[in-house]
Write a sequence for this structure.
């Protein structure tokens, strides 16, 4: 079976959809599926490009075909990619489209319709009300003109969780629904020297990590405030915040840290590589993600694989797996974050037990191999049709 995966940009700095597409591609190819990613050369939301980064992503077994993106890069457009898509879609048994509301995934869907090829849209949260509310007017016009046709003609709409599916039920037919959780994988770890020096010989259980794009919805500011309150109540430990700039920048967060007088216990390190992220998951014992919305939350699954105690909100869809594993704590009210940090930092044995439970569950349920098997079966079914 030959599958074309389509995503606007594949650099890890673009977050879950980019990381997920590469992880899935590698696992599909291991299972004998001829899967190919077609994407642009963008590797960060700032518009930077690098074939070297794409080559590094490919080194683990992924097959990635890239074309040069054209301005404005925030739309992740590339006529070179579209030309290659025409050839790849024509040769494919099925097309797997990552995301919605961007030109390249839309072009891929239109090509699939023209060539009568089945296609699956992996929504990556783009169909949830929270995301539809961003740039609401533009997305409404897009949906009225073309989006509803693209969604309506799709063989399947793939969701990462029941909650993501429920929130898109107003625009997706029940017969289109396919629910497949996202997976996770850790790479050979590479030490982040600045973090290693900052943590020193502090116990793993006393090291708290936030890792992800510094997006507004992920609320790194709320984590800093909760950390300040916990420290005032005697909490011992250190907090590391890693990730590429989003609506928040590294400088913005550093100003919050300085204003709160937390320079000695909070480190803002900026973006890290996948290998460095893996090291962080293994060096720190507590993972905190106070996000207002995640259609899944790959970083939660990665932290679980790393044996971390995870603290997150019930708006993070992966929290259902966290609860099933007994590997962390889930909260609804933002004021609870301070208490949960205090609980974790005051009981090392609790953090160790929780981390072991999280790892055991993730190794059985949240690997890319398990996800790829499910996705290949679904794509095979629509391909036959």
């Amino acid at each position: 079976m030959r599958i074309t995966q389509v995503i606007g940009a594949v650099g890890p700095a673009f977050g879950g959809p980019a990381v997920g597409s590469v992880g899935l591609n590698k696992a599909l190819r291991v299972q004998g599926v001829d899967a190919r990613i077609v994407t642009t050369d963008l590797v960060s939301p700032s518009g930077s490009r690098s074939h070297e980064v794409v080559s590094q992503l490919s080194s683990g077994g992924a097959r990635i075909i890239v074309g040069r993106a054209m301005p404005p890069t925030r739309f992740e457009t590339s006529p070179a990619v579209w030309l290659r898509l025409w050839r790849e879609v024509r040769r494919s048994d099925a097309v797997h489209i990552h995301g919605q509301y961007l030109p390249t995934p839309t072009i891929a869907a239109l090509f699939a319709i023209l060539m009568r090829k089945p296609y699956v849209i992996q929504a990556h949260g783009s169909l949830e009300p929270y995301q539809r509310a961003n740039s609401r007017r533009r997305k409404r016009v897009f949906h009225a003109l073309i989006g509803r046709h693209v969604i309506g003609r799709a063989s399947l709409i793939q969701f990462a969780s029941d909650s993501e599916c429920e929130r898109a039920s107003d625009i997706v037919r029940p017969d289109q629904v396919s629910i497949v959780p996202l997976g996770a994988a850790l790479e050979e770890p590479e030490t982040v020297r600045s973090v290693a020096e900052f943590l020193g010989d502090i116990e793993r259980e006393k090291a708290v990590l936030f890792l992800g794009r510094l997006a507004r919805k992920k609320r790194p500011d709320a984590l800093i405030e909760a950390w300040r309150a916990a420290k005032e109540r005697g909490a011992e430990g250190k907090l590391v915040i890693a990730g590429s700039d989003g609506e928040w920048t590294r400088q913005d967060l550093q100003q919050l840290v300085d204003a709160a007088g937390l320079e000695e216990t909070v480190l803002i390190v900026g973006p890290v590589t996948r290998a460095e992220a893996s090291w962080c998951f293994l060096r720190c014992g507590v993972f905190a993600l106070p996000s207002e919305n995640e259609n899944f939350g790959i970083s939660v699954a990665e932290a679980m694989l790393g044996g971390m105690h995870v603290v997150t909100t019930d708006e993070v869809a992966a929290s259902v797996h966290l609860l099933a594993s007994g590997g962390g704590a889930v909260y609804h009210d933002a004021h609870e974050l301070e208490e949960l940090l205090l609980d974790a930092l005051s009981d090392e044995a609790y953090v160790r037990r929780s981390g072991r439970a999280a790892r055991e569950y993730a190794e059985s349920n949240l690997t890319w191999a398990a996800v790829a098997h499910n996705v290949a079966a679904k794509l095979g079914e629509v391909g036959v049709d």
User: Anything to note?
Assistant: Residues 193-365 form a domain with the Rossmann fold fold (CATH 3.40.50.2000). Residues 136-153 form the longest helix (18 residues). The mean pLDDT is 90.
